[in-house]
Amino acid sequence: MFRALKEAKDVKTVVITGAGGNFCSGGDVHEIIGPLVEMRRRKDSQALLKFTQMTGDLVKAMRACPQPVIAAIDGVCAGAGAILAMASDLRYGTAQSKVAFLFVRVGLSGADMGACNLLPRIVGAGRAAELLYTGRAMNGEEAERWGFFNKLSTPENVLQEATTLAASLASGPTYAHAMTKRCVHDEWDMPVDAAIDHEARQQAICMETMDFERAYEAFAAKQKPAFKGD
Question: Please, which residues bridge with residue 138 across strands?
Fold first, then answer.
């Protein structure tokens, strides 16, 4: 997925989902956790750090790519899978889904792949703390109520509805969408006045695009604009 995000130059939106009725159950105990324990036994601190930085690079790529990333989530969404959902811009889920940040279950902290930064911004600090300390699962209805899911769908429709949303965004002003995503990311640690000034500069750049002119001309002609992302 990391490679796909780096190479997706002509892609306008990204939809991620699982297979076999589940989104992602996270790292395999024997293929991932076991080798990490062996690194600990060898006291190979550099190898452990290299692994954690590698997993964090995926979240960085998801946040840095200009395309909106939409997760269609059903079934198990746990561990690193929950992180993938969290790092997405929008999340469609099902009532049957189970979202769990399981790191505490294997003796690790909830501070993994940016969870202590991103999750509180989605569900609030107190709720994020509960999920990260306990490792318990949220069902779909709770996840929607807490703001983790943007919408609940049925298992048979969740991917289609996420794809429909992706197509809608792809038909819009994609350059402007990329600017919105970048500003949401950049402004997290800005004071309000600085954010207002930052947005003024970015919006002025968007006003230099052809899409801005196309939208005006379409409005004047009482037509739907055909955005081209330039």
Answer: 99
The domains of the chain, with CATH numbers, are 2-170 (3.90.226.10), 174-220 (1.10.12)
Question: Rounded CA gap, 49 and 53, in Å?
Answer: 6
Q: How far apart are CA 215 and CA 166, in angstroms?
A: 20
pTM of the model: 0.90
Q: Which residues of the chain have pLDDT under 50?
A: 1-7
Strand order in the sheet with 137-139: 76-78, 98-100, 137-139
**pLDDT tens-digit profile of 9-45?**
567 899 999 988 899 998 777 788 888 889 999 999 9
Q: What is the 3-state secondary structure (H, E, C) of 160-225?
A: HHHHHHHHHHHCCCHHHHHHHHHHHHHHHHCCHHHHHHHHHHHHHHHCCCHHHHHHHHHHHCCCCC
